[in-house]
TrEMBL record:
Protein name, entry field: Phospho-2-dehydro-3-deoxyheptonate aldolase
Pathway the protein takes part in: Metabolic intermediate biosynthesis; chorismate biosynthesis; chorismate from D-erythrose 4-phosphate and phosphoenolpyruvate: step 1/7
Species classification: Bacteria, Bacillati, Actinomycetota, Actinomycetes, Actinomycetales
Residues involved in phosphoenolpyruvate binding: 138, 294-295, 317, 348
Pfam family, one: DAHP_synth_2
Cofactor: Mn(2+); Co(2+); Cd(2+)
Gene: aroH
One of the GO biological process terms: chorismate biosynthetic process
UniProt source species: Schaalia odontolytica
Residues covered by region (Disordered): 1-28
Length: 479
């Protein structure tokens, strides 16, 4: 394996951390030929697990290549069209789910509550924006995590970091932390069963608008949320009006809920890519939407190369250090022809930086002219450690970043296209604040995440009510 070398200050070579080239003998699948999307092989691949047994990995990826697709090219095309509408201000995207899904929590109850939360938020946002809300779960595939350190030390013992259930196990023993290729097959199977549930819940009447509205009324009966009462009352009246006007609610029984995850594990994403029989083009069939994270968005790196080869709508996370030139070269790499809905930038700048760093990027993209769907991830730039030692976020700071996102778009004359959040439908205590006043002390009660802190069910709805108010302002200024 050749470590990548870049010149450092003073001319001495510096080893780039957590980056490796894929060994040449892994290049060829059974046929001995490279697939058209396998041009990433040989490029710098950040954040990849190091497997002890490459033969085992080859067997697993050969099996994955024979599995049926998890999503279909026609659905992927529909989502791309919706993402294009969001870039023009004709729809708003809600993307949310766990930081890291786990195999243990891919159960009917957890999935149902997460879907329920997304649908409840979507109803509120639809009303606020007076626009269709495009619903995308961070779900059915979000099982691998980039880590800031390859190793973790506890009480003097150092082991490989947990990289998500798709790679190794959270338990702190040498056996559990050893990356296991077999987990890629479990990833596929858990994603398939989760998608099956999603399809059943969203196409079987469970997502009926009247039903979702009833759930929201339950939320509103909590006095902590009294300040959203008038918005909730407006939504209630609108739904009653629709009923009185003879809207056929039966036609509103089904919703589309798309899937997404970070395209991190290159062997898995590559093995799940298929040629679409209608168009002859490659689609990543592991999810409808895929994104590259802040740590794997290197323009010349393997992740961007792989994503540049598939037809799916693609996102890239942009942190506060993103330069104008980096952003423009990502547009060159991922959306050279300016196709609508193809490329989203998901900004995660931090509440204290967003107003200063986002506006110049928005202006540069606007001048460039190729369309971008702009989404805010108000979670990852605002992670702190509580006085009690938990990795957490403050609800108020998260909301401040969302506000900063809307302000930046207003000042650049661009379109705020969506919200990307880490949430769960469960009643956890991982994020501080909100109307339920979770504080440093109560984090301990139900802190369940294995990686980043998530908004709980109530905090998610509270966010939706606040964002609905910002969206209502945007739509009234356009009238
Ligand atoms: C994430 O979305 O969980 C994540 C790791 O984000 P980022 O790449 O923005 O740090
Ligand atoms: Co996260």
């Amino acid at each position: 394996m050749i470590p990548s070398i870049t010149p450092g200050r003073g001319g001495e070579p510096v080893r780039k951390p957590r980056s490796r080239r894929v060994p040449e003998r892994l290049w060829s699948p059974e046929s001995g030929e490279l697939a058209p999307w396998d041009t990433w092989r040989g490029l710098d691949a950040a954040q990849q697990p190091t497997y002890a047994n490459d033969e085992h990995l080859l067997e697993v990826t050969a099996q994955l290549r024979r599995q049926p697709p998890l999503v279909f090219a026609g659905e992927v095309d529909d989502l791309r069209t919706w993402m294009g509408a969001a870039a023009r201000g004709e729809a708003f995207v809600l993307m949310g789910g766990d930081c890291a899904e786990t195999f243990a929590e891919a159960t009917a109850d957890h999935v149902r509550l997460k879907i329920q939360t997304l649908l409840q938020m979507a109803v509120v946002l639809t009303y606020g924006a007076s626009l269709p809300v495009v619903k995308v779960g961070r779900i059915a595939g979000q099982y691998a995590k980039p880590r800031s350190s390859d190793m973790e030390t506890r009480d003097g013992v150092t082991l490989p970091s947990y990289r998500g259930d798709a790679v190794n196990s959270f338990e702190f023993t040498p056996e559990a932390r050893e990356p296991d290729p077999q987990r890629l097959l479990s990833l596929y199977n858990h994603a398939a069963s989760t998608l099956n549930l999603i399809r059943a819940f969203t196409k079987g009447g469970y997502a009926d608008l009247r039903q979702v509205h009833r759930w929201n009324q339950g939320f509103m009966s909590n006095p902590a949320y009294a300040r959203y009462e008038s918005l909730a009352e407006d939504i209630h009246r609108a739904i009653k009006f629709m009923g009185a006007a003879g809207v056929d609610f039966e036609t509103l029984r089904d919703v589309d809920l798309f899937s997404s995850h970070e395209a991190l594990l290159l062997e898995y994403e590559s093995a799940m890519t298929r040629i679409d029989s209608r168009t002859g083009e490659p689609y990543n069939t592991s999810a409808h939407f895929l994104w590259a994270g802040e740590r794997t968005r290197e323009e010349e790196g393997a992740h961007i190369e792989l994503l540049s080869r598939v037809r799916n709508p693609i996102g890239v996370k942009l942190g506060p250090s993103t330069t104008r030139d980096q952003m423009l070269s990502l547009i060159d790499r991922l959306n050279p022809d300016g196709e609508e809905g193809r490329l989203s930038f998901i900004t995660r700048m931090g509440a204290d930086r967003i107003r200063e760093v986002l506006v110049p990027l928005l202006e540069a993209a606007r001048e460039d002219g190729r369309p971008v769907t702009w989404m805010t991830d108000p979670m990852h730039g605002n992670t702190i450690t509580s006085s009690t030692g938990y990795k957490t976020r403050r609800f108020e700071t998260v909301m401040d970043e969302v506000r900063g996102f809307f302000e930046a778009h207003e000042s650049a004359g661009t379109v705020p296209g969506g919200l990307h959040v880490e949430l769960t439908g469960d009643d956890v205590t991982e994020v501080i604040g909100g109307s339920e006043h979770i504080d440093d002390e109560s984090l301990h009660d139900r802190y369940e995440t294995l990686v980043d802190p998530r908004l709980n069910h109530q905090q998610s709805l509270e966010m939706a009510f606040q964002v609905a108010q910002y969206l209502a302002k945007v739509s009234s200024s356009e009238e």
